[in-house]
Amino acid sequence: RDLVRSRGLGDVYKRQQKVVRLGMPARIGKHRKGGKSYMTVQAGPFNGSKAMQAAMGRLRGAGYRDAFARN
Fold first, then answer.
1. Cβ atoms within 10 Å, residue 58
2. DSSP state of 63
3. Alpha-carbon distance 64 to 33, whole Å?
4. Of 23, 21, 20, 27, which Cα lies nearest the Cα of 1?
5. CA-CA distance, 44 to 58, in Å (whole number)?
6. Tens-place pLDDT, residues 1-46
7. Are 44 and 64 spatial neighbours (Cβ–Cβ below 8 Å)?
8. Counting C-beta atoms within 10 Å of the first and last residue's C-beta, which end of the chain has fewer, N or C?
9. What's the pTM?
């Protein structure tokens, strides 16, 4: 999955829609780390590493420079 961090609820919905417009399935995830809550936009799943690398290129090209991949 590719993750894009977001700051607030309104922002996370805008980012999710932007990822969808890039042609990827996207959902919102909630996480806790170090006592803080985070919301992320999770793109995927993708069929294989080539598809994931292509998605990473689209995300970074759209300005999500801190996007990262994980399984």
1. 16
2. T
3. 21
4. 27
5. 13
6. 444 555 566 788 888 999 999 999 999 988 888 988 888 889 999 9
7. no
8. C
9. 0.77
Residue 69 burial (10 A CB sphere; 0-12, 13-18, 19+): middle
Q: Supply 30's token pair.
A: 């909630």
| β partners of residue 42 | 3, 27
- The tally of CA atoms less than 13 A away on the side-chain side of residue 30 is 5
Q: E strand or H helix at 5, and its extent?
A: strand 2-6
Q: Token match 């969808």: residue? A: 20
